[in-house]
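Design a sequence for this backbone.
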């Protein structure tokens, strides 16, 4: 119990000074950040190619299309073949890092924590996304159909809840942790729960009345009717898959630190530094590509360290302990 109370207190803190990167961390907004010049690098002889993992949560064709210009830019900049490896779910990227089959991936905070545990510290974070207001956090939102009559979490008692992915912070771990913090047992509170297979799939399942509500991620900033400034909802609105007037936000989490660009720890330091500079300079040098991969607008990237994600590792350990207790 003391450990659980400590974790609850930790999660309740805003992601400001407690989880912000050090003040010396570089940011895309820094005036001296410049895009890396094209040309081969010494680390290229060791790596031969750049293997880029893509988390699940969006259909594969859209993911590949959204990241193709990004892939091509990496290849053109560093004169090394770059390949995209889309996974059907978050676990696919986590396991690929464990098998040393990937070099870099933009992870959710919970997926990073899982990969770090899976590899015994064999991955490390480089950067995270900075939002339009300069923060480095997002929120989990729970949504029900606007015509369902459900207007609050209290009205979800006995109803059907769709989780997005077992390795998603916003789509599973954070909502469950927050509910337990309020004294609610998710296994008993909802009449039925299930995994939808991804964030888009969870929202579609609600729209199609397969579930009463679902959770996904959003920046929490901007116009809710546009799907906020970034996130699953914004991407679905822009693709014509969703009209936000079909849904109602019935619960919003405390802020969650944005997930990191993650690399294998064993890779050359030169590669890591080039990846930092590439991403830090991307928003100004190639704004269209930046918006494509980030599903909307933000302020760029900011350097982070493993310490920024320790709380998520502890949360994953707690979730695993809860599963063992149930079974």
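Sequence:
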């Amino acid at each position: 119990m003391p450990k659980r109370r400590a974790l609850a207190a930790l999660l309740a803190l805003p992601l400001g000074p407690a989880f912000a990167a050090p003040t010396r961390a570089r940011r895309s907004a820094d005036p001296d950040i410049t895009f890396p010049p094209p040309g081969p690098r010494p680390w290229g002889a060791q790596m031969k190619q750049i293997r880029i993992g893509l988390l699940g949560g969006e259909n594969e064709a859209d993911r590949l299309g959204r990241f193709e210009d990004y892939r091509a830019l990496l290849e053109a900049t560093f004169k090394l073949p770059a390949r995209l490896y889309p996974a059907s779910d978050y676990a696919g990227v986590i396991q690929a890092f464990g098998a040393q089959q990937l070099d870099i991936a933009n992870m959710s905070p919970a997926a990073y924590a899982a990969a770090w545990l899976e590899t015994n510290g064999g991955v490390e974070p480089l950067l995270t996304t900075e939002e339009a207001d300069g923060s480095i956090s997002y929120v989990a939102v729970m949504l029900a159909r606007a015509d369902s009559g459900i207007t609050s979490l209290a009205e979800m008692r006995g109803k059907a809840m769709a989780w997005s992915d077992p390795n998603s912070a916003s789509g599973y771990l954070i909502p469950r942790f927050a509910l337990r913090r309020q004294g609610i047992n998710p296994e008993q509170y909802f009449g039925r729960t299930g995994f939808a297979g991804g964030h888009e799939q969870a929202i579609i399942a609600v729209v199609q009345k397969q579930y009463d509500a679902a959770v996904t991620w959003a920046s929490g900033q901007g116009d809710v009717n546009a799907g906020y400034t970034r996130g699953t909802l914004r991407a679905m609105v822009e693709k014509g898959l969703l009209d936000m007037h079909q849904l109602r936000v019935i619960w919003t989490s405390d802020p969650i630190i944005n997930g990191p660009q993650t690399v294998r720890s064993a890779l050359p330091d030169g590669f890591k530094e080039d990846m930092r500079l590439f991403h830090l300079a991307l928003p100004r040098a190639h704004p269209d590509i930046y918006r494509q991969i980030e599903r909307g607008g933000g302020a760029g990237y900011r350097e982070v360290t493993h310490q920024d994600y320790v709380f998520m590792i502890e949360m994953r350990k707690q979730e695993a302990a809860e599963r063992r207790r149930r079974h």
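The chain has two domains: 2-132+258-312, 137-256.
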